[in-house]
Specification:
Layout lengths: L1 H5 L3 H7 L9 H17 L3 H19 L4 H16 L3 H14 L7 H16 L3 H15 L6 H17 L3 H19 L4 H16 L3 H14 L15 H6 L1 H13 L7 H14 L9 H7 L3 H17 L7 H18 L8 H12 L2 H8 L12
Helix pairs in contact: 3-4, 4-5, 5-6, 6-7, 7-8, 7-9, 8-9, 9-10, 10-11, 10-14, 11-12, 14-15, 14-17, 15-17, 17-18, 18-19, 18-20
């Protein structure tokens, strides 16, 4: 690997000489960086993005050296731009060069992520043996590096693909199962991401001659793809540890409850799952006081909807306690849910009816500022 990395540095030295001295400043680099990122988001001219990231990475490197965070990010985005522009071999050269620059950081999670990118690019270029070699090296680093769940699951997925491509299907299955467990915890069994990766597991079972497991996996996929198929039984939430493991299922159920009619398959069960999770978890502390009850009134279904909103916002923002702004957003979703389901509710609420009027007038957010004010504006309770 080191010989390959060393061979990739020559072209970049030539390019650095082409950047005029009057552009060699941080302000120019940051501007070029920002423009390049916008092109990637907007799916614009990737050729232009390539030139912008070439310039920004060159300037970062000259100003702050080849381990500077801005330089590393710009080089990674340069490689991504090359891939988008169908220049995979150039993406490989850029990434090999970057890994050579980061040789002193070989045991870090950042290095592992970039090396995983390289394995992916090798696979795209049909350099299968190199892709697997890179994945093996990444997995060794991950044994000791603190790796975020999303990054680790991607690494495991890429490694599984590379092992399978080299006909080592048993190892591909083992790694894919590890990745699926991570995805389950983060996103839930009903998530598109989980189902998509479950289909790859089915393929690996088939290639490994495990027809029975492939068939059972296909049945699981079919079940999960049905409406409400990702809703879990509340009985699995018997402890705090269970809730931690099933945080992704709670998130998925919260989204399902808020985005479907109460008459949809398993919608009520999804709401019950979220309520149980909220009661037993130590990951989220939902405060429901007088100001919230004045909004919801005596409407248990919408109290459930509010808790679903809190779960989504709490997990999305990685907080245990929601801000007032987040609480107001959760209440907006609650009122919308009420609006969509009012005609089928067993019990309606005068308080929710009033908020529904504000929703239809387009003034709900403004009114909620009065009902759920920022805490610094709340008058202290009188004794």
């Amino acid at each position: 690997m080191l010989m390959v990395l060393a061979a990739s540095t020559g072209a970049f030295a030539q390019y650095e000489a082409q950047v005029p001295d009057d552009m060699m400043n941080l302000e120019y680099a940051l501007k070029a960086d920002s423009m390049g990122r916008k092109i990637l988001v907007d799916k614009g001219s990737y050729a232009t993005a390539i030139e912008l990231f070439k310039r920004s990475s060159t300037i970062y490197r000259r100003l702050n050296g080849n381990t500077d965070g801005n330089y590393v990010n710009a080089m990674a985005l340069l490689a991504k731009s090359y891939v988008r522009n169908e220049q995979v071999k150039d993406a490989i050269k850029v990434t090999e060069k970057l890994l050579g620059d980061l040789e002193s950081q070989k045991q870090t999670s950042d290095y592992a992520i970039i090396l995983d990118n390289l394995s992916f690019y090798y696979a795209m270029a049909n350099e299968t043996a190199k892709a697997l070699e890179a994945s093996k090296e990444v997995l060794k680093i991950c044994e000791n590096a603190d790796m975020p769940d999303d990054d680790l699951s991607s690494i495991l997925i890429h490694a599984a693909e590379n092992y399978s491509a080299m006909n080592e299907h048993a190892e591909a299955i083992r790694l894919q199962l590890r990745a699926l467990d991570r995805i389950h915890q983060a996103y839930g069994l009903g998530s598109e991401k989980y189902i998509e990766e479950l289909k790859y597991l089915q393929q690996y079972y088939e290639k490994d001659g495990q027809a029975s497991k492939a068939s059972k996996t296909a049945e699981t996929i079919e079940s999960l793809e049905k409406p409400g198929g990702g809703v879990r039984p509340v009985e699995e939430l018997s402890s705090v540890e269970d809730c931690t493991y099933h945080r992704g299922d709670a998130y998925w159920c919260a989204e399902y409850f808020l985005t479907h009619s109460l008459s949809a398959t398993n919608a009520i069960q999804a709401g019950q799952y979220v309520t149980t999770w909220c009661i037993k978890t130590d990951e989220l502390n939902i405060e429901i006081d007088d100001c919230h009850m004045k909004c919801i009134g005596d409407c248990p279904t919408e109290l459930n909807a509010y808790m679903c909103g809190c779960v989504i916002l709490g997990q999305s923002n990685h907080v245990k306690k929601l801000t007032r702004e987040m609480e107001r957003q959760a209440m907006v979703w609650t009122v919308r849910h009420y609006n969509h389901n009012r005609n089928i509710l067993v019990k309606t609420s005068p308080e929710m009816d009033k908020l529904n009027e504000y929703l239809e007038k387009g003034t709900l957010e403004e009114h909620l500022l009065e009902l759920i004010p920022d805490k610094e504006n709340v008058e202290p309770a009188t004794k």
